[in-house]
Specification:
about 325 residues; about 40% helix; 12 helices; mainly alpha; two-stranded antiparallel sheet
Length: about 325
């Protein structure tokens, strides 16, 4: 073989190796893409229940004070959270834990950080009767709604019963919350084939997110919410709390929490179950060290943060409900008792 043919052979081998490497990278990227899914609208909802649930979500009369509503801690103008480390309850009580976002919450395997509620309906009844939150009683909340003619008519129209019960109340709230999805983020557009939806730095952050191991917990359509994991695997997390153990009674579940969704994470600060991290850069640094045993460089951290910001989708948009007025039979609020 003459020298010219040898050079051509070497060039061909190198080109082949480069092409093979490129194909391997593409294959790896596609394999990671398959671990996620775009946010989709709910497959079916009862529109009557949705409209009723929307009113109840915003109605502070479900609280003893007549001041706190579901929207107080899950503010739909603030990413479905309250942007506080822990929420404020009845008579300015400090809550024990950070309020998770209500957005896309129907995609979670369970509700609350410790998973003590199996679904949105079960979750909706908890805060109403919690003395540290809305501080009411289910029977009194139902009495308030029953005393308001417009509510009584609407419940009867939807549920076909003369008497309202708490099961109807939580069912309607849950049906409304099912609609609080945030599709069409730039990451969703990328998953759907628009590969220029992400910038060079965002793509680099996405690659780091996958290859560093973040994807092990933050996957699926909600990039989280589908498993319970220990907080502090490589290094202990100070003040981790009982977590899932409070529900299961198992010591092995101490410090374990439901993995939070990363959807709209740019809007839902502060982060973690205790709201200890106020910025995404801080949260990425802590997660890298405690969960992965990795110290991200400043550039790597910035790239991952850039990727996380592509997860902000279209926020729920609707006309605010006009709540029916109370009357002389309606229990008066007790904000200072």
């Amino acid at each position: 073989m003459n020298s010219r043919k040898r050079r051509l052979a070497r060039v061909t081998l190198v080109a082949g190796a480069v092409a093979a490497a490129a194909l391997a990278v593409v294959a790896q990227e596609r394999s990671f893409d398959q671990l996620y899914a775009p946010i989709q609208p709910p497959k079916s909802v009862d529109l009557g229940k949705v409209e009723l649930g929307k009113k109840l979500f915003f109605d502070p009369r479900l609280s003893k004070s007549g001041f706190i509503s579901c929207n107080s801690c899950h503010n739909l103008s603030m990413g479905g959270s309250d942007n506080l480390s822990t929420s404020i309850g009845h008579k300015w009580q400090k809550g024990p834990i950070n309020a998770p976002t209500v957005l896309n919450s129907a995609l979670n395997l369970a509700q609350f950080w410790d998973g003590r509620a199996a679904d949105l309906k079960e979750q909706a009844g908890g805060p109403i009767a919690n003395p540290g939150e809305m501080a009411f009683q289910h029977t009194l909340a139902v009495d308030v709604l029953q005393s308001i003619p417009a509510y009584a008519r609407e419940f009867k129209l939807i549920y076909g019963k003369d008497k309202i019960d708490i099961d109807m109340v939580t069912d309607a709230i849950a049906e409304f919350e099912k609609t609080l999805v945030t599709p069409n983020s730039r990451f969703d557009q990328y998953l759907l084939g628009k590969k220029d939806a992400l910038t060079k730095d965002e793509l680099a952050g996405y690659k780091l997110f996958n290859e560093s191991g973040c994807v092990a917990c933050h996957n699926g359509p909600n990039l989280g919410g589908n498993s319970f994991q220990k907080m502090g695997i490589v290094e202990p997390y100070k003040g981790a709390g009982d977590g899932r153990a409070a529900v299961t009674g198992k010591d092995a579940d101490r410090f374990s929490y439901k993995v939070p969704t990363l959807r709209n994470v740019e809007l839902t600060y502060p982060y973690f179950h205790d709201g200890a991290a106020w910025t995404l850069a801080e949260a990425v640094d802590i997660m890298g060290r405690l969960q992965l045993g990795r110290k991200f460089t400043e550039q790597e951290n910035a790239q991952i943060v850039a990727f996380l910001k592509t997860l902000t989708g279209e926020q729920p948009a609707f006309r605010l409900p006009i709540l029916p007025p109370s009357n002389e039979k309606t229990l008066r609020p007790q904000p200072f008792d």
